[in-house]
Amino acid sequence: MAPVPVFPIKVGHIDDVQELRKGKPTTIPERFVRDMAERPSLSPALSSSTTDIPIVDFSKLVKGSKDEVLQLANACEKWGFFQVINHEIEPSLLESIEKVSKEFFMLPVEEKQKYPMAPGTVQGYGQAFVFSEDQKLDWCNMFALGLEPDFIRNPKLWPTNPAKFSETVDVYSREVRKVCKNLLKYIAMSLGLREEIFEEMFGVAVQAIRMNYYPPCSRPDLVLGLSPHSDGSALTVLQQGKDSSVGLQILKNNSWVPVQPIPTALVINIGDTIEVLTNGKYKSVEHRAVTHKEKDRLSIVTFYAPSYEIEVGPMAELVDENNPCKYRRYNHGDYSKHYVTNKLQGKKTLDFAKIQA
């Protein structure tokens, strides 16, 4: 992840939500209280509603099902989000990554402080995308690591406690990388393109992992677990903790729709990079996280994107007189720097790439 100037959060002090929660405050610190227009609606109807977010059966894609490729195309075009079942990652590995992630967050704050999200990075423990003293904070603690290529790894940030943390993250990340590579093949097929086109284009793909821990919040109606945003990646893979509260919401037809966890499924979303490459046919979608009054929530997120060196722009096959070029060509590393040097504000970051009318 590219070094960039960021505002450091004083982890372990007033802005660490787990430490705040321990004090059982009767009021929410002003730093976390959202303006009225940003506050989540937590009506029972919204929180308990079932959704039509598509489900894609990976095993059917592998067997060459044309119907499942059409289902994938529909998911990418109409939703930008879908849940993948039968993805070939062992349930025991999903349990292991959840276990070591939760164990890390349950460590004393002094132990977690050994891996701070230092100024100029988006790796380590703390909060990312914070740039000013008066910026509202998310009700969330994060721990993020660069995985591939090797040069983005920072060995000093890889914990020795829990004992199996690093080993588990590496094994899990290799499996998720396979899922990403394969899904991009099927996404290419759904667009009528050669199935290897993305892998050939991406070079050595950049991969990072971020664990998000959302403690319960006494006033979930006043805070956000994670601010609304789209992802700068090509694909994002989200694992929702099996015992966690429902927290992920996506913006669909101007309404926030909750994503109900399916046991062992992975939630996949299209990132800004695929939106640009497909010239807007498949769009990244704004999403956020909300909190719960009594339950905590853990999520494990993998970001998969092209090499920083490659140039990104709409693919010629997806540009014609009916769908003229909507985005300029740019260096992906430049976009990554732009993304992590701006606070999360819906899809505003993508203005970087848009051709202005």
Automatic annotation (TrEMBL):
<keyword id="KW-0847">Vitamin C</keyword>
<dbReference type="GO" id="GO:0046872">
    <property type="term" value="F:metal ion binding"/>
</dbReference>
<feature type="domain" description="Fe2OG dioxygenase">
    <location>
        <begin position="204"/>
        <end position="306"/>
    </location>
</feature>
<dbReference type="Pfam" id="PF14226">
    <property type="entry name" value="DIOX_N"/>
</dbReference>
<dbReference type="GO" id="GO:0016491">
    <property type="term" value="F:oxidoreductase activity"/>
</dbReference>
<dbReference type="InterPro" id="IPR026992">
    <property type="entry name" value="DIOX_N"/>
</dbReference>
<keyword id="KW-0560">Oxidoreductase</keyword>
<protein>
    <recommendedName>
        <fullName>Fe2OG dioxygenase domain-containing protein</fullName>
    </recommendedName>
</protein>
<dbReference type="InterPro" id="IPR044861">
    <property type="entry name" value="IPNS-like_FE2OG_OXY"/>
</dbReference>
<dbReference type="Pfam" id="PF03171">
    <property type="entry name" value="2OG-FeII_Oxy"/>
</dbReference>
<dbReference type="InterPro" id="IPR005123">
    <property type="entry name" value="Oxoglu/Fe-dep_dioxygenase_dom"/>
</dbReference>
<dbReference type="GO" id="GO:0031418">
    <property type="term" value="F:L-ascorbic acid binding"/>
</dbReference>
<keyword id="KW-0479">Metal-binding</keyword>
<dbReference type="InterPro" id="IPR050295">
    <property type="entry name" value="Plant_2OG-oxidoreductases"/>
</dbReference>
<dbReference type="InterPro" id="IPR027443">
    <property type="entry name" value="IPNS-like_sf"/>
</dbReference>
<keyword id="KW-0408">Iron</keyword>
<comment type="similarity">
    <text>Belongs to the iron/ascorbate-dependent oxidoreductase family.</text>
</comment>
